[in-house]
Each structure stands twice: as C-alpha cells, then as structure tokens.
Amino acid sequence: MLKAVGALIVLFACGTAGCLFAGRLTRRVKHLQQLQRGFLALATEIGYTSTALVPALETASRQAEGDMGELFGGAARRLHSAQGKSAEEAWRQTVEQTGLRFGLPGKDKEVLAAFGLGLGLSDRTDQLKRLELTRLRLSSLEEEAREDKQKLGKVWQALGWGAGFALVLLLL
Amino acid sequence: MREEADLLETRPGGAQRLLPYLPPFLRNALGQAPPALLAALEEIRLRQGAPVLLRCGREEWFLAARGGAVKEREAALIPGAQEMRESILAISQSSFYALEEELKRGFITLPGGHRAGLAGKAVLENGAVKTLKEISGINFRVARHVPRAAGRLLPLLFTAAGAGLPAHTLIVSPPGCGKTTVLRDLAFSLSEGGRWGRGLQVGVVDERSELAAMLNGQPQLPIGMRTDVLDACPKAEGMMLLIRSMAPQVLICDEIGRAEDAAAILEAARAGIKVIASAHGGGREEMLARPAVGGLIEAGVFERLALYSRSNGPGTLEGVWNGKGERIC
Question: Which terminus of chain B, N or C, has fewer Cβ atoms within 10 Å?
Fold first, then answer.
C-alpha cells in the first residue's frame, strides 16, 4: 500500500514538472503578445498625441494587461518617482526586475533592454522607429516561441509522465 | 512714479516654486541660496562650459559649485554636457519627443507658468525651424503672479463716455520692464471686475504663451474667470478668430508690430471691441516712428498710451497719454 502511494507521488511529481516546463512555453507566448499590445499602445500615445512618457507608459500598462502590464506600469512608477533618473535607467531597472519576477528568457530581456536605450531622448520619428523595431523583434520572438510551444510543449509533458513511469518501474 | 505693486515684491518663494522642475544638480545648489535672493530671482542662465548666472533685477550672481550664490567667478558652477542632458531630461519629463512644437518656438512652458528658453543647433525643414538639437543654453525664467501690477493704470483707462468699458490702450516699454505682467493683471482685473466696474468678457490672443502660460489647457497664471485664451496663435488671425467665436468685450494681445496686427486691431476697434495691446518701445515719439503701430497712434485709435520702464525697478509707470497725445499722468 505504502509503495503504491509512493509510486503515485513520484509519478505525479514528474508529470507536474513536465507540465510546468510546458506551461512556461505557453506563458512566454502570452507574455510576448502582451508586450506587443503594450508597445502598440505606447506607439499610439507617442505618435498621435505626443503624450509624455509617464502617462504613455501607464496607458501601455492598461492595454498590455497581465504580467507584462506590470513592466510598463513599473517603468512609469519608477520614472515618476525618479529624482533625475533617466527614462533609460528606469526602464533598464524595471526590465531586470520584471525579468526576474516572471522568468523572462534572456533573448526577450535583450530586446526589451535594447528598446530602453535613448528612450524619450530623441524626436518622435526616431522614437516611433524604435518602437516599430521592437515590435517586429517581439513578433519574430513570438513566432519562435509558438514553434517551441508546439514542438517542445508536448515533449515536456510526455517526458514528465514518461520519466515518472520509468522511475516508478525502477523503484518498484 | 512707481506702481502700487513693486514687481519684485511678489508672493514669497517665486523661484522656490520652480525648484521641483529643475534638474537635481541645479535644485540642490540653488536650494542653498539665501531665501531673499530666491524670492527676487528672475532668471537662471545655463550655458554649457560657462558659469551658471542668476539674475535678480539689475544684480547678477554666480551659482556656486558648492551651493548658494557667489560673486566670484572662480567658485561658480560650470555645467558640462552631462548637466545639460540632465536639464533637458528634467524639463521635458524624459519626453523630448513631446516637445516638437515647443522646440520650434524655442521655449518650454513649465507647470506654474515658468519658462525654459532654449538655444542649440536648429534643424531646418523647408527653410523653417523643425526642431533644436545639441542644446547648449537654457534660460529658466521665473513666472510670477503680481497682484495689482496694473493698479495705477487701471482707473485711468475708464472714462465717463466709456460706458463701463476700458479705453483702447497701448502699453509701451523696452523689453524686461514688466509689460506682460501689467497686461496679465489687466486681463485678470477686467475679467473679474472691481471698483472700476463689473467683470467683462475678455479675449486673450497669447501668441507667445506668455500671458496665460497655458499648459494642458489650463492657464498657469491667474487670467480671470471671464477670460478666453487663444494660445500660440498668430495675433492678427487670433483676434479675428476670437471676435467671431467668443464675442469678447475686450481683446488683449502682447507685442504688436506687424502691419497685419495693426489691421486686425483697427478691425476689432471698428467692431466695438476694446483693444489693449503692448509693444516694444522707449517712448511715445519712438512709437510714432514705427510704421504699423505709429499709424494707429496717429489715427487716434489708441485712447491711452502707457509707458513703462525699469527706472525704479520693473513696472515703473513713466506716464500715460490720451488719444490726442496729451499727457494725463
């Protein structure tokens, strides 16, 4: 009886671990979609109404929703309370913090960090070009993430359950 | 002759209200200056590689590198490229892109009506200034509301025949003598009403955004509850627009000089609207020699001409003439 309970625990633990890894791939796709929504809102605010950065980031935060809404909202708060801190610095710190909190992959963080260079410091045309470039890069990362999800999502799940079974058989 | 309200005797802390919008290096150094100096401060001039100058009336001080104000150039704070960048960040709230229109005009209006004038490299498009880059000089001008700045002039604008409306008035002075401040107080007083009469509908054409210092649709300086402001609009066009759209009883505009301004004033005067305008000049005779404005004075359009100077500080009323050229004050 005790062996059966132990086997079930091992099986479910491995299966859950597999699902968690697969879930990370799904979450990355969602994060990248949220980011693109946020950057689109930011482009609208900057391009059409020349809104200052703090309120523009706040709008982007509302539009992005979910975990990545926190990135835009956090940057807005940090910039608002910054004493002489540049937008570049406020954005970089927020990307680092959000990356750690939501486990953003290095590639995604690199794109986000690159966007922050010169943020708010050039004219509208240049800012819009940077936003467009960032959205294109995020879109290509989303495609890659979708492929990963399709290819590796099921693999991680199968691997989790499979490893659980194998371990149970070995232990029994 | 001195106005009732000395333009330097302002509400306490004129420049103190500007401090939150300054870059940290400037805020910290200026914060250590004596309160009396801060209260009288008119301008802070920043130039890359040159000492920071503080101008209070006729006095000039250097902002000290260790904080406070000094007279010795050696102890002055000298901003470099990094400090200029910080200043731009502070005044643009990290949103340089949002200032395209302001950069074309060469100044940025800050909350409270303070103003940052900019000098740098002009970027041209079709022969017109598109923007400024490589900002090398910033002039922070402290905005002040000066209650009763036009206190002495105001009663002289009303006559028995005026039926409660002020006379067509031209305010003349060299730059920096408080002309705009007087105009702003006239707009406020005429709009609010007082012992000289009931409140009037006032229209202000604020081409240089100096009178009302509009920011996000809100005047940053008191301009009166019956005042409509047409911000950043060319004067001649703005006067016609206001007449058609807002039916003002009094039209106020700053710094007239061009032929089209004179034509618009004549048109407004013929429409029964009282016009109060200002112009750069050192005296009545000097104004008569000016082609557009001189014609209006000679034709007797302006029923009052008030001359201001700095002889006894900004806002010194030197004299008032009627439409026939007779001195009445």
Answer: N
B107: enclosing H helix or E strand: strand B107-109
For the record, the structure tokens of A93 come out as 């710190």
Q: Given an 8 Å threshold on Cβ–Cβ distance, is A50 in contact with B23?
A: no
Residues A3, A8, A9, A14, CA torsion sign: positive
Q: Which element (helix H / strand E) includes B108?
A: strand B107-109
Between chain A and chain B, the number of residue pairs with CB atoms below 8 A apart is 55
pLDDT tens-digit series, residues B100-118: 888 888 888 888 888 899 9
Is residue B46 helix, strand or coil? Answer: strand
Distance CA B191, CA B194 (A): 9
Q: Encoding tokens for residue B89? A: 């960040």
Residue A101, domain extent: 2-171
CB count within 10 Å of CB A134 equals: 20
B32 Cβ contact list (under 8 Å, min separation 6):
B64, B67, B68
Q: What is the domain count for chain A?
A: 1
| Cβ–Cβ gap A84/B24 under 8 Å | yes
At residue A80 the predicted structure's pLDDT band, cuts being 50, 70 and 90, is confident
User: Who's near A9: CB < 8 A, 6+ residues apart?
Assistant: none
Q: How many residues does chain A have?
A: 172
pTM value is 0.71
CA distances from B5 to A48, B295, B306 (A): 44, 32, 16
Structural element, H or E, at residue A81: helix A66-81
> Distance between CA B122 and CA B236 in Å, rounded?
27
pLDDT digit string (tens) for A86-118? 899 999 999 999 999 999 999 999 999 999 998
The Cα–Cα gap between B261 and A131 comes to 44
- Print the SS3 string covering B155-195: HHHCCHHHCCCCCCEEEEECCCCCHHHHHHHHHHHHHHCEC
Could you give the CA distance from residue B280 to residue B288 in angstroms, rounded to a whole number? 12
Dihedral of CA B3/B4/B9/B11: which sign?
A: negative
The CA distance from B96 to B91, in Å, is: 9
With a CB cutoff of 8 Å and minimum separation 6, the contacts of B207 are B232, B233, B234, B235, B238, B253, B254, B255
The residue among B96, B134, B216 with the most chain A CBs within 10 A of its CB, best to mutate, is B96
Q: Name which of A33, A40, A85 is nearest A60 in CA terms.
A: A40
> Across the strands, what pairs with B317?
B308
Contact B94 A122 (CB under 8 A): no
The rounded distance, in Å, linking the Cα atoms of A94 and A98 is 6
Name the average pLDDT for chain B.
88
Residue B309 per-residue DSSP state: E
What is the sign of the dihedral through the CA atoms of B86, B91, B94 and B100? negative
Query: DSSP character for B33?
Result: S
